[in-house]
Specification:
Blueprint: H1 5-23, E1 32-37, H2 41-50, E2 55-56, E3 59-66, H3 69-78, E4 84-88, H4 96-107, E5 114-119, H5 128-133, E6 138-141, H6 147-185, H7 190-205, E7 212-217, E8 226-230, H8 248-260, E9 269-276, E10 279-285, H9 293-324, E11 325-326, E12 331-332, H10 334-344, E13 351-358, H11 361-368, H12 370-388, E14 393-396, E15 401-407, H13 413-419, E16 424-426, E17 429-431, E18 435-441, H14 450-466, E19 471-473, H15 476-497, E20 501-510, E21 516-526, E22 532-533, H16 535-545, H17 548-568, E23 575-579, H18 582-586, H19 590-601, E24 608-613, H20 614-619, H21 621-633, E25 637-643, H22 650-656, E26 660-663, H23 665-670, H24 675-690, E27 694-698, H25 703-712, E28 716-718, H26 728-736
Parallel strand pairs: 1-3, 1-4, 4-5, 5-6, 18-19, 21-23, 23-24, 24-25, 25-26, 26-27, 27-28
Antiparallel strand pairs: 2-3, 7-8, 7-10, 9-10, 11-12, 13-15, 13-18, 14-15, 16-17, 20-21, 20-28, 21-22
Amino acid sequence: MQETPDADDDLLELLDEPEHGEGEHRHSDRPWRILIVDDDGDVHKATELAMQGLTVEGQPLVFLHASSAAQARQLLASEDDLAVVLLDVVMESEDAGLQLVRHIRDELRLNAVRIVLRTGQPGYAPEIETVQAYDINDYKTKSELTRTRLYTVLTAAVRSYRQICALEANRRGLEMIVESSTSLSRMRGLSRFAEGVVTQLCALLGILPEGLVCAQMGGEHGQEVRIVAAAGQYSGLIDRPLAQVKIAAVRERLERCLREQQNLYDDGTCLYFGMGQGRAMAALVDVGRELDELDQQLLRAFCSNIAVGFENVVLYSQLLDQAYNDPLLRLPNRNRFVELLDKNLKDPAGVTLALIDIDDFSDINDAFGHHFGDQVLQAVVHRMAEMLGLNTAMARVGADTFGVLGEHAKVCPESVQAVFAEPFMVAGERLQLSATTGLVRLGESKAIGSELLLDAQIALKRAKQQQRGSSQYFSAAMGSDARERFKLLMGLRTGFEESQLFVVYQPQVQLETGRIIGAEALLRWRTVDGRFVPPDQFIPLAEQSGLIIPIGEFVMRTACNQLNKLRSLGYDDFRMAVNVSMAQFRHPGFIDMLARSLQDCGVHGQNIELEITESMAMEDADLVLRVLADIKQLGFSVAIDDFGTGFSSLSQLRQLQVDRLKIDRAFVQEAQSSTAGSTIAQMVVNLGRGLGLTVIAEGIETEEQRQYLIGLGCHEGQGWLFAKPMPAEELEAWMKR
């Protein structure tokens, strides 16, 4: 049935009412752009006249005109943001309209624009496949499109266009969020990251990077809120406390956002980035328009995503701070100090590096606790900063060691002594401290970076060897000695791994009868080129480096295996003496190592004697007593080597419960030529016999020395008079003879 014009108008008003209602929330300056493509000029006029004064979704309609498909192509090349195309099917050719559809979809890639086909010749209707393939929104004959129906078609098309645009905007927004996260993840440092957030957020909202402020809320330490990034009119606020921002609207908006912990969209846009542990960021941006629901959804996704990035950057900043700064003293640490040294090498003239080591600081920690020790360090740093000047760089390079870099006049022994001249007041305690210092003049050194610290460490070590509280400048000779020792240590490690170390044995005899009673196992090192390295050079290095632990076990097992072989040859009462060091005594696995060696080699502890030095016995008497008690449980006998060179008391000697005293070779050599040497040798023999101990002398080279020692009452001896140290095979052959 043909509808009357009145009925059409009633329907039109009914359709139009809600559109005006929605239009109250939309901008009136964004009309829907409709392109009419038709070779009939009357169709253009009739369409525009029919829609005159009407709105769709609260916005007016604007019409563009093309009289052919070719003209439409030209217009489409320069015009964008078209909502609907009203397209005649048949124009300059039967399929001109459909070809234009293909052009719009395939070549121009305009997927959002809605296409409504109109034809005055129903016989030229497009095939179903064409409608499906090219997303044609509607197809009508021109006779069907009364004013009401045309409005209905356009309303449906515009609504579809708006939804597609919203979905596309949402997709693009999400893509931008992902891209911004990827881009921002490469940025290090809170300020740079916040600046990146400014750029990405403004791009997401389609505005210039103007008028945005980021503020960081302090974490568990309650630090004040500060501006970390700003743009546009607010750029002068960077790095200021938020409380000092004079623009009340900005300050109050950010404070409210942080307080309420949510995004604010009224009276401007303020975004909240929560990061946990009391930390948060807030960003205020002047968008210049009211944000719709889509914008707010995208911003919520953006904030949620970027908050994780903020958290990671803060964590990275903390890790970076810990990597290069000392958290207690707020000084650069060793890593940062090395960088500083490298920079100063560009102009080293007149610059001195010093390592200042507080003497006996561990005793302060033991006596008063680590908290008090921390306060002591803080007091020292405060005074050094006052007395060494602002142009002197300081760093904490060790637990109680400071690196100082500055002019010769400021960084010198006198200025360091002045720092520690007066007592320190710490927590009500008056402390007199001292420090030992190693210094390097940068202009006189060829070292760089960490090598300079090594040179200063060498000088510091030399100063400690001289006197507590002294200072020592580095010299090339010191460096050569240290590097030679290092090369020797590296060679020792390699030599041990490659079996260059071996054991020789020097027989021990009864002085009066000459009967063989045992042998001392002695370690030797022969390098690949056949050179022998003296034991007094490499054994101290092995002890200092800890290498003595595996080497000591090697000597013990080798000696036990040789003892087992000698027993198989008929020497049942043979005694094997093995030297041990304080480093071995301190090692927690020392006693277990001894027990395993006895068991694995099939020997008895009664046939092994451990030799310790007198100075070692006095170094840590309590430890030595405990370990000696365990050694005795295994059946070992104990001798004190080099007796007479230390300062042990008679009471200490009684407590040690040793079995044998060994007269040092120096006293044996001096016994006949020196009154002092003779006196000490006589004293050792008398002391040993008085305590019921066996006395053995080493380094006996002549018969006169042997007879003299027999006259003193010495029981046993060893030396070149009887036999030199020899490998196992030679020892066995010597004993057979």
